[in-house]
Protein 1
Amino acid sequence: MIDLDRSDDIWTVTINRPDKANSLTHVMLSQLADIMEGAQAARAVILTGQGKVFSAGADLEEARAGLATSDVWERLSGAIAALPGLSIAALNGTLAGGAMGMALACDLRISVARAKFFYPVMKLGFLPQPSDPARMAALIGPARTKLILMGGQKITSEQALAFGLIDQIVPDGDLLDHAKTLTADTVTAPAEIAKGIKVMCAGSALDVPNVG
C-alpha cells in the first residue's frame, strides 16, 4: 500500500490505498518511516497519494485500538524533517488528521484545487502529534493553528494558500510533473548546497515572529 519509485535521484513515495481514502495503518506508517529514514542519499523526495484523497489520516479501526496516539507518527515526521534534500508533499486531494504531520514536515506543499485541510483532534478527543502544532504555527501563525486544531475548521485550498499552509495550487494533471520541476535545481546542484540552505532557513526561522 506504499509504492516507491527511485529515478534520477528523486524518490517518489505514493500512499496507495484509495479504496479507504488512503487511511493509514501502523504497517503503512512504519513502511513510510523506513523509506524516509533510508532516503538520506536521495536528492529530492516527493510524497503523494493515489486517487482523489491524499490521506484521511489514521485507519479508524486502528485509531480506536491505539494508533492515534502511537509514536510512529512522530518517527515518520521526524524522518521527513531530517531529509537533507528537498522534500515536497504533492497533495492530490484532501489532507486530514494525523496525516497532516508528514506534510507539515516537508519543505514544500503543493496541492490540487479540490483539496480540503482539517485536523479534528478536539472532536476525536486526542491531542495532535507533538511536533505538529509547532510546525503548523511556524507556517501559518498560532491563531490560525488554533482555528484548525481547536476550532475544528475545514479549510479550502484557496484558504490554505492564503494562510501559507500550502505553497502553490496546481492543476490535477500537472501535480507530479510540477513537483519534479521544483526539484530540478536541487537535483543538479551539489548535495551540500541543498543541505546548507535548509540549515540556514531553519536558523533564520528562529528570528522571525509568527503572525497569527
Note: The first strand starts at residue 2 and ends at 7.
Protein 2
Amino acid sequence: MRTFLFQGLVGLSEAMYLWMVAAGLSLIFGVLRVLNFAHGSLYMLGAYLTFYFFGLLGHNFWLGLVIGPVFVAGIGLLMERFFLRLVYRLEVAYQLLLTFAFVLIFNDLVKLIWGPIYQAPPMPPGLDSSLSILGQAYPLYNLFIILVGPLIALGLWFLLEKTRWGRLIVASASDREMASALGVNVPRLYTWVFMLGAWLAALGGALSIPIRPVSPGMGEIIIIEAFIVAVIGGLGSLKGAFIGAILIGLLHVYGVFYVPVFEMALAFILMAVVLILRPWGLFGTREA
C-alpha cells in the first residue's frame, strides 16, 4: 500500500505538467475555437528560453522562470495576430496545417540556435533535496510542482469567474457577434487569450527543465498527451483538463509500475472509452 500511494504522488507531479499544457490548449479552443497543434512547441520554447535566461542571468532559475514564459507569450501574440487570425472562420484542417507548420519551424529554429544536444540545468537552490514520505525519498521539487498546479487552477478560476475580463472572455466564447455588437473588442480579446494559453504552455515547459532534459522535439510528446487530456476532460473545459491530467498522470505511473507492456496503450484506451460513452468529454458541453 505504501508503494501504491508513493507512486500516486509521482503521478500527481507528472499530471501537473500535463495540466498546464492542457489548460492552455483547452482555453484557446474554448474561446478561439482553434485546435493549436503547435501548443507543444510553445511548451518546448518555454523550456529552451527559460534555460537560456537561466544561463544568461547568472544561473538564476527563478528569474529565468519569470522571463522565459513571458517571451513565449510574446511569440503567441505574433502567431495569433499575423497568422491564426486569418483562419478562424476556415475549416479545422486549415488550422491544423498552419499550426503544424509552426511545429516544423520552431523545431528547426531550436536546432539552429541551441543545437540538437540534450541539456538540463541543476535543481533550483532550496528545492534540490528530498523528503522522506512513506518511507521513501521524494524530491522536494516534485512536491513544489504538485502545489503549483492547483494554484494555477485557482488563479484561472478567479480570472475567468470573478473578473470583468473573465466575463468578457466567456461572453465572447459564447457569442462572438453579440459581444462585438455590445462594444467588446473581440480580436484584441482573442489575442490576449492566445497569449495566456501560450504562457501556460511555456510555464509547463519552464518548470519541467530541472527534471526533464531540454531537447528539440520535446513538444511532440507532450502535445499528444495534452490532446488526450483535453479530449477526456472535454475540449474547452478547464475543470475537465485538470481532472483529465490527473487521470492520465496516475494511469501512466501505475501502468509503468504494474503493466509496463500495455502502459503506452492505457491512455488511448481510456480516451476511446470516454469517446464511446460520452463523446463531448467528462466535463465538456454537448453541442447540437
Note: Residues 2-277 form a domain with the ABC transporter involved in vitamin B12 uptake, BtuC fold (CATH 1.10.3470).
Protein 3
Amino acid sequence: MSLDTALLYLRKNQPRYRRWLEDFLRIPSISTDPAYKGEVRRAAEWLARRLNYDLHAHVQLWDTPRHPVLFAHLPGEITAPTVLLYGHYDVQPPGRSQDWHSMPFEPVIRDDRIYARGAADMKAQIIALMAAADAARAAGLPLNIKFLLEGEEEIGSPSLPQVLRERRSHLEADVCLNPDAGMAGEDLPSVTYGLRGLAAFELRVYGPQEELHSGMYGGAMPNPIQAAIQALSRLHDAQGRIAVPGFYDDVVPLTEEERKILAQIPFPTEEEAREKWGIVAYTGEPEYTPLERTVARPTLEFHGFLGGYVGAGSKTIVPSSATVKFSCRLVPNQEPDTIHERIRAYLEAHMPAWVKWELEYLVGAWPVLIPLDLPPVQTLKQALADTWQKEPLLVRNGGTIPAVAFLQQHVGVPSVLTGFALPDCNMHGPNEHQHLPTWEKGMEALTRFLFYFFERGKGV
C-alpha cells in the first residue's frame, strides 16, 4: 500500500479519466425538465457501468418518484474507516443556444478548459472522485469506500431525505467527502466550511380567464402583472434589505474573526465587476462587503417572470396571469419552513385584494456550518496543502448543497467540502467549463485525502 503508487497510477490513467468525462458530459441529464427524465436515468446507468466494470464496485440503483439514486460500495478491511463520496449527476438547463460558443452537450477543449453543461457542476468532480477511488484501490488501500450519487441536486434533492431514512444502514460512514464546493481562485485550494440554505417559491397571480383587449377593458380589469409587481416590490427596502417582518430574527451574526477569514478570499472589486459583467454597481446591505453579502448573509432573489406578451412589436392586452419564480438563500440559524411562513404572511398582507393568487413552496434546504476543528477537515486541509504546496483557504459558499444537511440529519454523517471548479467557470450559465490542470491536481488531492483518512482512522 503506497500513496506514491496511487499517484503514479493516477497520472498514467489521465487519458482514460478524460474519456470518461467527455462521455459523461454528452448525456443531457437535466433534472428539472420532465422531457429529459430518460436522459437523467441514462447518466445514472452510465455511472453504474463505470463503477461496476472499471472499479469493480457493488452497485445499486435506487428508484425514487423522480430520478434514481446510485449507491456503490468498494469494501475494505472490516476494521478500516469508511468514507462516503457524494456527487450529483444532474445538471442545469443550458439556456439559450446562441449564448454558447459550442454545443452545450458536446464537450470542446479550448485553452486547457473543457466546455460543456455540467463540466464544473459537477460531472468533472464526480469523475475526480471515481479516479481517486480507482487509484487508491489499485494501490491496495483497504479503506471502505462508498458512493452516493443523486440526480436531483439541481432541483433541491426532494427525494433524498426519504432515501436516506430508508437506506441508512447502507450509507453509514465516518465522513462524507463532497467536492461540489469549488475553489476561491486559480491556484487557491479551498476548504468550504459554510453553505447557505434555500427556500424556493413560485408565485402565480390570476386576472381574467383569458387575455382581453386593453382598450376595451384596461383600467377596469384586474392586471395580474401589475399586482405581482406591486406586491413583490415591497419585499425589499430602498437599501436592499429584505422587508419581510422577522426575516432576520434567527440570523447568526458574523464574528470579527470570521470577517477576517473571509477578507482573505478574492472577490471582484466594483470596477472589475462593471468590466466583467457590465453592471452599474453592486447592490445589497451596505454595512457588509460584497463577498459577505454573497456567502454569509441571507438573500431574496427573483429568477424569472412570465406573463402577457413579450414578442416582437406591440400586443395591447390585459394578461390573464403572471408567474414569478424566486428564492431565499438562508444562513444559520434560519429555517426554510419558517421563512416560507413569514413570506406567505407578508404577501397575504400586501397582495392587492382584486386578484387571485397562490404561492407554491418548491423546496427547502438547511444552511450548514462545519466545525473547523473536525478531524476530517484537518485531514482535507493537509491533502490540499500537500498537493498545492500552500495552505488552503477557509471559505463559506453562497450556494446550497441540500445533501450536506440531510446526511447529518438522517444518517448522522458529517461532511467535508472542497472542489476544483474555479470562480470564472460560468457554473449555471452559458459556456460552463472546467480548468483541466486544476481538475487533475484535484484528483491527486482527493487521493491523498483517502490515504490520510485511512492512516488517521487506523491510528497510524
Note: The chain has two domains: 3-195+367-457, 198-251+298-362.
Protein 4
Amino acid sequence: MRHGKKNNHLGRKTAHRKAMLANMACSLIEHKRINTTVAKAKALKQFVEPLVTKSKEDTTHNRRIVFARLRQKDAVTALFRDVAVKVGDRPGGYTRIIKLGNRLGDNADMALIELVDYNETYNVGKATKKKSTRRSRRGAGAASAPAAVASVDAVKEEE
C-alpha cells in the first residue's frame, strides 16, 4: 500500500534527490528563475515555498532550519535579505511554473519556475493599479462637505 507517500522520487535515491533539490533551490534564489522539467519544477515548488515562508521572520532558528535544507550560505543570506523583503506581504504562492513545451532531445515536458515578485512583465499592471474605494449614496455628500468647509477655512485664514 502507498498510503501517505506523496513525494515524487524523480528516479533518484533519497540523498541524490535532496541534494538536487537543494542545488536547484539555491539556483532559483540566486537567478530568480530557472528552466527545468515539469516534474522537477513541481517538486522544487514544494521544497522552496516553506523555506521562503520561514525567511519572512528573520530569527537565528529560522536561518539554521533554512541552512540545513539549502546548504549554501550565500543562498541563505540572499533569501533572508532580498527575497523575504519582497514577498513579506504575500501570504503564500511565492513561485510560478510556466510550461514551455517539450525538450528537443528527449521530448521531456519543460517548464520555467520563477519567483513571482521578480517578474516585471506580469507585475506591470499591479504597480500602476490604483486602489479604488466604494462609495455609498449617503457617504458621497457627507464626505465632500468637510473638505469644502476645510477649503473655505483655508481661504479665510489667508485674508
Note: The radius of gyration is 24 Å.
